[in-house]
């Protein structure tokens, strides 16, 4: 049976949801799971009720951010496949991991799978959960160039080649970078409309901190991953989009430009520009890395 290393990330603020998500992993059939619960600024060993037997724990005394927290859990689990699950998500089907691993085995070109995300109470899922450019039917599968990060399945070898999640980002756009780097390994990032993960629909209320990181990480995304000549085109296109989107929201636009400036002034971490072959593959697949 496939062996899946599972990293569950939490801050300990949703104990019932965390318990439900971990139980949905332990109930999986047709795979062997090795699970670690990573506490970002919280010690999972102190959970009440205690986590199930066999679930490893990692206490990060400081909240390192979402991507860094996930990365810290990877060395603690074994398996040729990795699965990342946020604490407010869970797997409705006990065959999810088995079906996902079969998909990876039958289609070796796949380097990342994001499932279709549904609200467990039946609320209509927001379109932002569908990473395809043309949203359409949420059950329709296809190539993608970003991912919703709350439930992601990957071959471990591909994850290692990408360098993992973008530690410096803290929050926002790490799913775009991971998908881009999957493409740069010669693989494909895939949205699987026939695999289902559950996550409640929440109010996407935004705040100044969100707008700042959104802009900073957009600049960092380009600086870290694009050939130098494409960096100003990508950042410029997104600057124009945000100005048009938030022209009537000066507070949001002010916070966004504060992050935009930080994106140029602050060091983004390791630069690994994608090859021109990857730029071409992404272009013919439907989305050149310019917008």
From TrEMBL:
One example GO MF annotation: glycosyltransferase activity
Gene3D superfamilies associated with the record: Spore Coat Polysaccharide Biosynthesis Protein SpsA, Chain A (3.90.550.10)
Membrane-traversing stretches: none
Keyword Glycosyltransferase (UniProt): yes
Superkingdom classification of source: Bacteria
Pathway given in the UniProt record: Cell wall biogenesis; cell wall polysaccharide biosynthesis
Glycosyltransferase 2-like domain boundaries: 14-159
Keywords assigned by UniProt, alphabetized: Glycosyltransferase, Transferase
Family listed: Belongs to the glycosyltransferase 2 family.
Protein name: Glycosyltransferase family 2 protein
Originating organism: Agromyces albus
């Amino acid at each position: 049976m496939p062996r899946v290393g599972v990293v569950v990330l939490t801050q300990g603020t949703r104990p019932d949801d965390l318990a439900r998500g971990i139980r949905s992993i332990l109930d999986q059939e047709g795979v062997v799971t090795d699970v670690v619960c990573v506490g970002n600024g919280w010690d999972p060993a102190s959970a009440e009720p205690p986590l199930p037997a066999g679930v490893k724990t990692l206490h990060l005394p400081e909240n390192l951010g979402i991507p860094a927290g996930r990365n810290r859990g990877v060395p603690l689990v074994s398996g040729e496949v990795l699965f990342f699950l946020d604490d407010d998500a869970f797997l409705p089907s006990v065959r999810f991991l088995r079906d996902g691993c079969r998909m990876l085995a039958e289609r070796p070109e796949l380097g990342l799978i994001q499932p279709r995300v549904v609200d467990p109470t039946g609320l209509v899922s927001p379109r932002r959960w569908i990473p395809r450019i043309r949203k359409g039917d949420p059950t329709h599968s296809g190539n993608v160039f970003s991912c919703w990060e709350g439930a992601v399945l990957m071959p471990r070898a591909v994850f290692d080649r990408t360098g993992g999640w973008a530690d410096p980002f803290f929050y926002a756009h790490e799913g775009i970078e991971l998908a881009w780097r999957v493409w740069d390994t010669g693989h494909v990032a895939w949205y699987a409309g026939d695999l289902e993960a559950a996550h409640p629909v929440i109010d996407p209320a935004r705040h100044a901190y969100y707008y700042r990181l959104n802009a900073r990480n957009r600049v960092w995304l380009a600086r870290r991953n694009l050939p130098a000549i494409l960096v100003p085109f990508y950042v410029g296109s997104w600057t124009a989009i945000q100005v048009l989107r938030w022209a009537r929201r000066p507070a949001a636009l002010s916070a966004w430009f504060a992050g935009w400036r930080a994106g140029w002034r602050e060091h983004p971490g390791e630069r690994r520009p994608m090859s021109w072959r990857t730029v071409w593959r992404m272009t013919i697949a439907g989305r050149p890395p310019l917008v």
